[in-house]
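Interim report, section 4.2 (structural modelling).
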Amino acid sequence: GESVGLHLPTLSVQEGDNSIINCAYSNSASDYFIWYKQESGKGPQFIIDIRSNMDKRQGQRVTVLLNKTVKHLSLQIAATQPGDSAVYFCAENFGGGSNYKLTFGKGTLLTVNP
Amino acid sequence: DVKVTQSSRYLVKRTGEKVFLECVQDMDHENMFWYRQDPGLGLRLIYFSYDVKMKEKGDIPEGYSVSREKKERFSLILESASTNQTSMYLCASSLPRTGGTEAFFGQGTRLTVV
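Predicted structure of the assembly:
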């Protein structure tokens, strides 16, 4: 869902279910996308990335889907575990003079219920 | 493993003080970044540097400056701290790869300005 005021979008799932976290990115020229996970009190950690010449990429228990037509990115987590509880950020990078600068979304809070 | 280390986890400073936030990375990365993170706003880029003594403004540079005298160290300076600079500050580093690449983050510095 959309964030309202200072509240993060939230997703609550049961342990063992699959989770899907969505992200709308802003720049149609973006050519590289990353998902980060941030646990409480820690810095963001890399999960998985995808380049714009792909529409799907799989990692261990995670899959990223890219739909360039509607500028949409999603992160799927299979068999969600309590340790997956965190805030998840998508980030986009677009080329040109600042091709090393990532722009982040506002994040989604995932809560996994045991 | 890449290690990005921020000098303090928590800082409390008074309004008007000059504040230095230090960041060191051990992977010989050319790019370094300072972000601030506020609830509901995600990560916003303050400044970044793509080489020693080089810097570029990010999205919210007002009230901040930076220094990069050595490749491994990137400092964020609040010339005269104000209460609206109370935030979580995150440092990151990355390689200058064409098409973008992941950024590695430090654990963050939570700054409170009173």
